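Collaborator request, handled under Task 6.
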Amino acid sequence: MLPKIFCFLVFALLINSCSSNKYAASNRVYKRQVKEFARQIKKYPLEGSATKWVGTTNFGMRKPGFVIIHHTAQNACEETLRAFTLTRSQVSAHYVICKDGTVHHMLNDYLRAWHAGVSSWGNDKDINSSSIGIELDNDGYTLFPAAQIKSLLTLLHTLKSEYKIPAANFIGHSDIAPTRKNDPNVNFPWQLLAKNGYGLWYGDTSNVTVPENFNDLQALRIIGYSVKDSTAAIVAFKRHFEVEDSSTFFTEGDKKILYDLMKKYE
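Structure tokens returned to the collaborator:
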């Protein structure tokens, strides 16, 4: 028989191994799914699509062109990680950033996460297929801790450098789905992000003159907002650029901001 102390040590190691990787099961599912995707990529040509296959030597992976920022609307990072590792939830994101700044990478950046839902930005109606989703652990009301924002900025720097994502394409969930979502919440520091090159911001509008024929809804469309529900689009715009104003119409000051931003997008 093995000495009791040896059995105890083996048991302790097993327990420690299990507790140190509580997502081992979901990681195995991830690996199986990746292998299945690789198998599908090897299929050529598709049946009925062509009579012969000639493989080109000039190709690459499709790169993401947008970064969409969310808040989790939950009370702890673990709640979100659990939700994103349960098949029945049918939601996911590429990254989850906890309040303490810990960054969890949950999906390869080239793969399609299910984070945007029914949404659009400009002419893009399938944001999930063209974007990276980042979830910030936040209940939807409170401030975002400095450690969390610091990690976010570091991650955004990496993503922008790696995929050459334009500054204008760092946006929020409420921007692409104004009738359904309000994340990230009004405390999110969009101006700080824009200062660092992630998103756009307006300049000094004291000397801005808005043309008499200025069409504010058309300006919203130029920026990227869907204006099917114009009230929702206005509220989403104000949430992003004017956190202190929650009205559902544009004042003259608002129009100056909108006009200044529109010129950056043209």
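The cover message to the collaborator said: "The two ends are 79 Å apart (CA to CA). The longest strand covers residues 66-71. Please let us know whether this matches your experimental observations."
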